[in-house]
Amino acid sequence: xxxxxxxxxxxxxxxxxxxxxxxxxxxxxxxxxxxxxxxxxxxxxxxxxxxxxxxxxxxxxxxxxxxxxxxxxxxxxxxxxxxxxxxxxxxxxxxxxxxxxxxxxxxxxxxxxxxxxxxxxxxxxxxxxxxxxxxxxxxxxxxxxxxxxxxxxxxxxxxxxxxxxxxxxxxxxxxxxxxxxxxxxxxxxxxxxxxxxxxxxxxxxxxxxxxxxxxxxxxxxxxxxxxxxxxxxxxxxxxxxxxxx
Length: 245
Ligand SMILES: Nc1nc2c(ncn2[C@@H]2O[C@H](COP(=O)(O)OP(=O)(O)OP(=O)(O)O)[C@@H](O)[C@H]2O)c(=O)[nH]1
Ligand SMILES: [Mg+2]
Prior knowledge:
This protein is α/β, with parallel strands linked by helices. The protein has nine helices and six strands. It has one domain: Rossmann fold, CATH 3.40.50.
């Protein structure tokens, strides 16, 4: 497993250059990422010399675990308050910047998220191949308040990936705001990380306004998840291209 901060400079986002680029990606109030259309990507001043890289990432996990809510939280849209099964396949994209330490290069990660409802995946055979085709990374989701969803993760890992496929794999525990009622222990998480050599992250998919009241809110909530995802996607490219770190 790679050490956080070994490839991406995690402090860089707070630098002048980092915050200038981040501001181009955020809403004016600075609390969430902005949506961009197909033909109107972020306008980053050309003198900042930013290279854009595109990745496809799918979300997997039991129904109701929070895949659609996680996409909303990460992309800066409204998190659904109730569970509506995702009907088929939904795609969204987000931009997140990073500074590659060993190259001193600034990169804009353009991440396409593929979110399929679990019921639709079971009902239609063609959805899973569409998600897996050319996929660079998979986020495996479980909910802290549903042990069953955690116990399904190894099965999902075996079903969707193999150790040599080069796909970047990250496990994400949702509903961490309800951790007082958690059915998943720290030990369960440590064992999963050690057995599969995969990082396990945590996310609270609560509305930005709710979150702001409790813990400062804003884009800071999603920064650790996005940094880790980008760092692992970049690491995968480094491994695939056989370059030394
Ligand atoms: N408190 C809390 N609720 C959450 C969190 N994430 C998701 N939820 C709630 O969990 C329910 C299900 O979330 P969805 O995102 O629709 O679940 P899904 O995995 O997309 O489900 P399918 O589309 O059926 O596969 C919704 O009521 C969300 O509001 C979280 O981090 N905290
Ligand atoms: Mg859904």
